[in-house]
Amino acid sequence: MTTNKEKETTIFEKMTKLSIEYNSINLGQGFPDKDGPQDIINKAAESLKKISNQYPPMKGLDILRKNISKHMANHYKLEINWETEILITNGATEALASSILSLTQKGDEVIIFEPAYDSYKPIVEKAGGIPICIPLLTPKWEITYKEINKYITNNSKLIIINNPMNPLGKVFNLSELEAISKIINENNMFVISDEVHEHILFDNKNHLPVSSIKGLEKKSVKIGSAGKTFSLTGWKVGFVIASKELIDLIGNMHQYITFTVPPNLQQAMAYAYQKPIEYYDDLKIEFQNKRDIIYDNLTKYNVKTFLPEATYFINIDYENKFPDLSPEELCLELIKNAKVTGIPISVFYDKNTQKSKISKLIRLCFAKNNSTLLKASEQIGKFFNS
């Protein structure tokens, strides 16, 4: 039997449908409007004819795992055993599902920081776990040991973080990650860190992988996304980095969910991870320029806008201008009257979160061409000042 809850479509589907209906510029869904490097795409096409198209190894192609290990050494000075500590998955979402389902049993409490990426809570619930949602408060969105500790019980098993954080564009600093480490070790817990935007950071910010934090080397799971790093999100190539014991556990779940990942895409991503440091520098510059274009244009129209530290999402605050509208209502007004589609931040909160702690923000994706960003921000600005 299909329940009404299961029939519900996601906010992204709803907003995309409305965007098409009203011929609105869609800044709702988080993907670039152009494909990644052509040489990587060519390598995938070439690999279809040059390597086997039968099932590759469950953990992933050796060459891809080796190159991800080298990548971690080159970028973070972390020594990762490619044979035992890396698992290739069907995108970061499958990596999350396999990890959460492996580490969560019925009745386990899982801490999630809000606003949270929308797949965390449903996966925890499918695993029989109990999501414990901690809302982060504007403008700094900080977490502290004292605040997390308020939510810890004998049933606390897992913390899920998103670093850099979608939808806020926040980067967790060393102090915050050390607070998480202290909580984890005091309570015999684990942490899953969703780090898919690790290479899209701005203003000389540095990413700190979860396993680089003292005390988390064996208690952490890092989720990565080759699709995000190389702007090929439709390929759905992700990975997990963890201790051998955790990889064995997560791999056992992975083999029953998807088992493996298309070999030609893995081969192409193995090639991609050989790119020099300049590729990553250019990636940051490209997206920082896009961030600055939309931010500068919105602020020119006096639209209150939060400058993100990372990711390709930016948030606008409408509360002072339209205090009587809910985030969903404001999004509908933007679609109809500004011809721009965004996502209400409210959908990234649990239904039981206090209304006073839910930020009245609208998320916009700026991974689009510059002319689109200029046009969209101008239309939003004119609507806010009409």
Descriptive notes:
There is one protein chain. The chain has 14 helices and 13 strands. By secondary structure, the chain is an alpha/beta fold. It folds into 2 domains: 134 residues, Alpha-Beta Complex (Aspartate Aminotransferase, domain 1), CATH 3.90.1150.10; 238 residues, Type I PLP-dependent aspartate aminotransferase-like (Major domain) (Aspartate Aminotransferase, domain 2). The strands form 3 sheets. Strands 2-8-7-6-5-3-4 form a 7-stranded mixed β-sheet, with helices on both faces. It has a 4-stranded antiparallel β-sheet with strand order 9-10-13-12. β9 and β10 form a beta hairpin. α4 packs parallel to α11, α5 packs across α6 and α12 packs parallel to α14. The termini are far apart. The N terminus is likely disordered.
Secondary-structure-derived class: alpha/beta
CATH superfamily descriptor of the largest domain:
Type I PLP-dependent aspartate aminotransferase-like (Major domain)
The largest β sheet comes out as: 7 strands, mixed
Number of structural domains: 2
Uncertain segments are: 1-6
**Backbone CA Rg:** 21 Å
**How much strand content do the residues show?**
5-15%
What is the averaged pLDDT score? 95
In total, how many beta strands?
13
Q: Overall 3D geometry?
A: globular
Q: Largest beta sheet: what is the strand line-up?
A: 2-8-7-6-5-3-4
Topology as a string of helices (H) and strands (E): HHEHHEHEHEHEHEEHEHHHEEHEEEH
The CATH topology of the largest domain is Aspartate Aminotransferase, domain 2
Q: CATH architecture of the largest domain, please?
A: 3-Layer(aba) Sandwich
**CATH class call of the largest domain:** Alpha Beta
The proportion of residues forming helix, as a percent range, comes to 40-55%
What's the number of helices? 14
